[in-house]
Amino acid sequence: MDKIINNDHVIILAGKDKGKRGTVTGRAGVDRLVVDGINVVKKATKANPMTGAAGGIVDKSMPIHVSNVALFNAATGKADRVGFKDVDGKKVRVFKSTGEVVKA
How far, in Å, CA of 20 to CA of 43, rounded? Predict the structure, then answer.
């Protein structure tokens, strides 16, 4: 089980988007996350008449390393670390500062 998964609300700890918040939309490998609206770059695309895609310059969210991201704790309004705990025989994610179960 990963500490940060899809649809988690995260806050960026380092880089050009430091302090911004976003939602995890996907994973790119074992240690990289794609966060909506974070690490956006301009990418030139070629037109493809077979799919009807127009060419031009588009904005694209690139992956960011998982070490530069922390889970956002809505109760405290800050970034928080994540741990694991057994609850009723199931392994669940909990916030380290408060011990509350992370709602996914």
Answer: 22
